[in-house]
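Re: that chain you flagged

S.,

Sorry for the slow reply, it's been a week of failed gels. I finally had a moment to sit down with the sequence you sent. For the record, here it is as I used it:
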Amino acid sequence: MILKTLIENQNRLVPAIVEIELIPGIPQIHFLGLPDKVIKESFFRIKAAMKSSGFKFPLSQQVIVNIRPSSLKKSSLGLELAVALGILHLTGQKVLCEETQKHLIYGELDLNGGVREPEDLKYFKNMNNDWVLTGNALSESHEFSRLMDLNSEVMISRNQHSKTVLRRPEIGLEQNFSDEEAELIFLMATSGLHTLLAGQAGAGKSFLAKRFISFYLSDETPTHDDWFPFIAPHHSLTVGAFLGGGVQLAEGEIEKVENGVLLMDELLEFHSQILESLREPMTGEVLRIARAGRVKEVKPSFQVIATSNFCPCGKWIPGYDFSGCRFGASKCKSYLDRLSGPLADRFGLMYFHKLKRPQRTYPGLKILSRIENWKVLAQKTKPEIDMEVIEETYSELSGRRQQALVKVAQIFAIEDQAPQITTKHLKKSETWTVKGFLQLEKGMN
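Prediction finished late last night. Pasting the structure tokens below so you have them in one place:
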């Protein structure tokens, strides 16, 4: 008999196949396919649950359970429900209908025959929209088919494939921003460009970055939960934890933030290896990771929002007078050197925050309304772009910088419902995509 279940792979639940067969022999369950201790111990829970429920474990037959794919080491909190139901079906004590057999069967058994929903099921990313059968609910957040105990009938939920209702976080919508911050948030959301928020300590870089998730715009659908992921790792993070590592190639931060926002708060405090390893994921290139003879490929898909002071005193911005700095210009310059040119080039937008800024009177809800209006216009307006003119006019800029310039100029043109990008749109775009980076290149001279 073949049933479907879930196993743990790289710290996430993935579908697996369970083959169950009865052959003559000593009454025992033999698990094949590299099972761990948790799976092996499930034999005793299955046997006790069946006995408590009034069922009989096969007395003259041994149960062979093959878990595929066989090459992976297996760990699973809920595989035992699939095995128990498979044994009951094969012995004719509880026949499973075809609809039940199509489910991913995943539940923990109590010794008295009760069935519980495993704690890790709430993190399951149901990429293929499979039907899931589990036990008593831990929460009301998921619509699964359920089996309360082995004696009960399966309660099949018809709402499992209902469309996810997106709930935009309100943390940024209930805040006010300055006019420049509002413009920046609008461009971050509509362009999807990686953004570097620099400037003086206490000026509001982290404040803005942490609230951007409320304005995040994506054409994708979240793979779980009701909004896109927002991950802000601490700067003590290791390269292995960032990219994924270990013998089993555990899931790294760049996979957990799929189709979401990665906040690198205090960017220059991260280890230099992390900063340089961020370069390939930021371009969306397939990342090939090899550890201890195992290999996996990751296709990164996220938007980086980084904040940083560019000097240890936390005061430097273009035009800052070092006469009041207690560290001195040389030490501040060495700190800025931690940001390499190739990494900086992967950021499309830059904004320098100043302590003396205009009052925050621009409501977050107004920014969101502007973003949503632009999204409607973008479906109707396709401004023309003459890339030859762009390459001639901005020949001193890198290819990535030119692309960012054009992308933002196109956003302004769409908002104006203009048929083509004009000089006005390019000049406005320069403020956000070129000016700050040129100031950074001049450094602290």
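What I noticed first: The CA atoms of residues 155 and 217 lie 37 Å apart.

Talk soon,
D.
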